[in-house]
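Notes from hallway chat w/ T.B., transcribed later so I don't forget. T.B. wanted the structure written out for a chain they're using in a teaching module, and asked if we could keep both sequence and structure tokens in one place. Agreed to drop them here.
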Amino acid sequence: MRIAADATMAWSLAWSERQSTEATQKFIDEGVTINQFSEEDLARIQEVTNEVILRGACEAPDHAKVYQSMVAYLEHYATWRDVSAPYNMSRVMDNLPSLEEIEACL
């Protein structure tokens, strides 16, 4: 079961990346202008997201458990993300919600 799940995950990632590549090219071929958020906008979005995450964590213990797991993973993943950048697919998020504040909600 584990081997099948791992194989499915690898296939799914490769398939979705291929689909995204082809879809992006179709947009470009049709003349769609692709815009990206500025670093300032991304920082503000992350700030608001952190506020919403913390509020949700404090309102619902189940949410706090999910956010605790998510933030702990992202903090742990940060070293690999930084070492593998700019070659990986992940956007560097410098400002995560406070793991301690989320854990205080539990």
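Follow-up for T.B.: The chain has a mean pLDDT of 91. Might be a good example for the class.
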